[in-house]
């Protein structure tokens, strides 16, 4: 944050793990399920923290396919990103357009662990009630 209280994108991460995470987040705009899942290790864990974690790339594929079915557009926009070795923290604003045209804008903090060029853990922290109010969906 600058002294005026305005958000600005803090560029603290420039290593390989951070670039992998940037690639993954940017890939949501393309809506390519194979590409999205390709960022993950076979035994990866995906956890939208208010709900139960999903273990394994097959489960992650299924969850991402459901998201792609629900939303016409998705943009996971980085506000701040920081990394230390294999750990990447990302403050984001996730923006979705549902099939019926309704928009969703959700502040999210993501924690990623990377090993051998793949995401092994992806945990998102957000206000589940806010998501449900905006989307009408239950996770």
TrEMBL record:
Keyword tRNA-binding listed: no
GO MF, one annotated term: hydrolase activity
UniProt entry keywords in alphabetical sequence: Hydrolase
Record InterPro entries: LEH, NTF2-like_dom_sf
Any matching Pfam family: LEH
Domain Limonene-1,2-epoxide hydrolase, residue spans: 18-132
The protein, known as: Limonene-1,2-epoxide hydrolase
Species name: Solimonas aquatica
């Amino acid at each position: 944050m600058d002294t005026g209280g305005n958000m600005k994108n803090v560029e603290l991460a420039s290593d390989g793990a951070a670039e992998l995470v940037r690639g993954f987040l940017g890939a949501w705009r393309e809506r390519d399920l194979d590409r999205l899942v390709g960022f993950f290790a076979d035994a990866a864990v995906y956890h939208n923290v208010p709900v139960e974690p999903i273990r394994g790339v097959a489960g992650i594929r299924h969850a991402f396919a459901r998201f792609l079915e629900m939303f016409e557009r998705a943009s996971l926009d980085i506000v701040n990103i920081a990394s230390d070795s294999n750990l990447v923290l990302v403050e984001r604003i996730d923006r979705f357009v549902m099939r019926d045209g309704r928009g969703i804008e959700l502040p999210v903090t993501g924690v990623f662990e990377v090993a051998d060029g793949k995401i092994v853990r992806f945990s998102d922290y957000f206000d589940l009630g806010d998501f449900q109010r905006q989307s009408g969906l239950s996770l």
